[in-house]
Amino acid sequence: MAGNNPDQGSMIGVVDYGSGNLLSVTNALAMVGADAQLCSTPEQLAGAERIILPGVGAFGNCLDNLRCRGFDQALDELVIRQRRPILGICVGMQLMARKSLEGGEHAGLGWLDAEVVRLVPQPEQLRVPQIGWNDIEFRANCPLFAGLRQGTDVYFVHSYGMNCRDETDVGAWCDYGGRVTAAVWRDNIVGTQFHPEKSQDIGLRILENFVRWTPC
Amino acid sequence: MLKRRLIPKLQLRSMRLGNADRMVLVTTVRFDQTVQVGDPISQAKVYQAQMADELIFLDLDATLQGRPTMAGIVERAAEEIFMPLTVGGGVRSLDDFRKLLRHGADKVSINTAAVESPELIERAADAFGAQCVVVSIDFSRTNEGRYSVFTRGGKHDSGLDPVEWARTCARRGAGEILLTSIDRDGTRAGLDVETTRRVASEVSVPVIASGGCGTAAHFVEGFSEGMADAVAAGTFFSLKDQTPLQIRARIGNAGIPIRPQT
């Protein structure tokens, strides 16, 4: 990864709060030519032009880890007040919701009017977690999917899904025994339930789209 | 619609080449008769080009030799391979999980350690999420004609029934079951469809069937009759006469949902 200067304009800060496989995220960003840096403190993150919020595991754990490092306040400042572009991945997307019902009720960052609830696919033979490649439909102008065709397959692994109150926050969806939110988009905020860093060429293209995106 | 998955299984053994020990890619027959087939990283890149849906890396000797797992190999793979990587062999503790996840693994498979200390399944699922805990179950028919779960690279009969054990694993928080027939391993005679089906209908988490694939039809059987969510194969893909790309159309034509070839 090139460049260690936090003042550099194009740095993409990957929030490192002890969650999951960050190496794949930074490797994938490097592959599309982005200057990605792991940021383990809010001070490091402050220099990021745009932000990636990954997340693996339980919602409550992720949120606790985010808070105890002071990232919740830092993210509010950078994302809500300064309107820097952010991409949440998997639980990183779910954290943006108002609340989650995973393992009790937890308040989220509250950026989107949404609730995170356990997948209840119909018929019941469908397994939880949803693991594997599923095709998505996306809103035509959603910046993450520029240049991709409708119905493209991306890689999911999750037991909980995000239900948006405001339908216009949904950037993409898939069918898993019912409609499941695959991506969200509102202003400078985007998120994917699936893992772009695990979705081969298509996923790299989605990351590249995020890196090039200028929210209006 | 969610697609069924094709998963090349990269089995590794440590071999002395020149003055150094290196991890080499091998195939096995009934967990024995090792054949060296190449370099794991190069082969993993080939699988990426051939649109495999995921990869599984297994260190075959780790438990027997008591050596730590292969973080270095995963790290190299994760640099250029952007699909889910499951890594297993010799994983015994939460620290082993943490180390592999930090080095680029998405899921970690446990086998011997799960049987010997089942609470590891819960602890790992709590710490890292159920989605990254794969319990690998190797089973074989014993001389008395019953099916039993074997650990330590297929050397030790645990006495557990594979279906019962799979149910226990799922209840304890496993996110996925990797089910391998030792008797079929490397034989190219077809999956143990019956046992796969019994396990798949007893657990609510995804089941990966493995051991015995020799033709595209075997994959189709695993999905349709075995009700497997994914089929993993070592020998079939390593011998390179058929690729995930080539068999994809055959599986799709049989009416199984699978990623298209583009």
Count up the domains of chain B: 1
The structure class of chain A reads: alpha/beta
Proportion in helices of chain A? 10-25%
Taking strands numbered 1, 2, ... along the chain, how are they ordered across the largest sheet of chain B?
A: 1-4-5-6-7-10-11-12
Point out poorly predicted stretches of chain B: none
Low-confidence stretches of chain A: 1-8
Overall mean pLDDT of chain B: 92
CATH topology of chain A: Rossmann fold
Helical stretch count of chain B? 11
Short description:
The complex is a heterodimer of chains A (216) and B (262). Chain A is of the alpha/beta class and 216 residues long. Chain A has 6 helices and 13 strands.
Secondary-structure blueprint of this entry?
The complex is a heterodimer of chains A (216) and B (262).
Chain A: E1 12-15, H1 22-31, E2 36-39, H2 42-45, E3 50-53, H3 59-68, H4 71-81, E4 86-89, H5 91-94, E5 97-100, E6 106-107, E7 112-118, E8 130-138, E9 152-158, E10 160-164, E11 170-175, E12 179-186, E13 189-192, H6 200-212
Parallel strand pairs in A: 1-2, 1-3, 3-4, 4-13, 5-7
Antiparallel strand pairs in A: 5-6, 7-10, 8-9, 8-11, 11-12, 12-13
Chain B: E1 5-17, E2 20-29, E3 32-38, H1 40-49, E4 55-59, H2 62-65, H3 71-80, E5 85-88, H4 94-102, E6 107-110, H5 112-116, H6 119-128, E7 133-141, E8 147-151, E9 156-157, H7 162-172, E10 176-181, H8 193-202, E11 207-210, H9 216-224, E12 230-233, H10 235-238, H11 244-253
Parallel strand pairs in B: 1-4, 1-12, 4-5, 5-6, 6-7, 7-10, 10-11, 11-12
Antiparallel strand pairs in B: 1-2, 2-3, 7-8, 8-9
Helix pairs in contact in B: 1-3, 7-8, 9-11
